[in-house]
Design brief:
Number of domains: 1
Shape: globular
CATH superfamily: K homology (KH) domain
Length: 116
């Protein structure tokens, strides 16, 4: 399968997962959770989903536990919405990229303020 189809499938999965995650009522899942990246295997049978929370890495790890327990529901909803023949097996991975970028943004803003 050409890479543009894989990229399109990964972006579709990423977009729809963001909507599905907002519907989940698990208290472990942070309301400030974002999907950073989706890596899909070439046969669309596996997908690694990188999630990050503004609260930090610990909140992301708790959210991953909640997402793992709801993975069956998420796969079913994903299959229905994207009209896929087979839903990919989802592996959620905690990431701290959003908290890290917010920290870098704060440092840059602190450096710019003294010059003004």
């Amino acid at each position: 399968m050409p890479s543009y189809k894989l990229n399109r499938a990964a972006e579709d999965i990423k977009r729809e997962l963001a909507v599905i995650i907002r519907e989940l009522k698990d208290p472990r899942i942070s309301p400030l959770l974002s999907i950073v990246k989706a890596d899909v295997s070439s046969d669309l049978s596996y997908a690694k989903i990188y999630v990050s929370a503004m609260d930090g890495l610990e909140s992301s790890k708790k959210s991953v536990e909640g997402l793992k327990s709801a993975s069956g529901f998420i796969r079913r909803e994903l299959t229905n919405v994207l009209k896929m023949r087979k839903a990919p097996e989802l592996k959620f991975i905690a990431d701290d990229s959003i908290a890290h970028s917010a920290e870098l943004n704060k440092i840059i803003n602190d450096l710019v303020k003294p010059e003004e």
